[in-house]
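>> received
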Amino acid sequence: MKSNFLTYIQDTFQFSLEEIQDFETSLTKTLKRSFHINTRKISVEDFVKKVEKKWWKISPTGYGKNTFYLDSLPETYSALWNTIEHINGYFYIQEVAAGSSAYYLSDDTIDTWEYRILDMSASPGGKTSQLSCYYPNASIIANELDKNRLRTLQDTINRISAT
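>> returned
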């Protein structure tokens, strides 16, 4: 990591030496794999039963009833995105921080009001996916200015059935 970045952060936020060391350490830690269950296709309870039968080890994140950490997969799996559950759109792989906006906006409750929601910079589709679960009757406009990212967004929307 560039030292001038750390110096900038330390000076701007007036971090102590200990705080800047903690900050630097936090930037180099590997994040736990996490995902949210697409409740438009499967209930949380049914998903948990399904994957526990396949020996997945998952745990709640504390950021929503449908958001979990993946603690481990059986060795027979090559990758989480290659599982039949992911391909069928039962869950969306997403870091907890990336999905926290939908969690905080919704207060972790399903709202059936017919809102209009604008998701700016929507690709690859994680926030759109979560918003569609929390607001199942809303019209969500998934905006993406980068045309190179539109295909990924469209694929996600189709896979999770958020059309």
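>> The longest strand covers residues 67-72.
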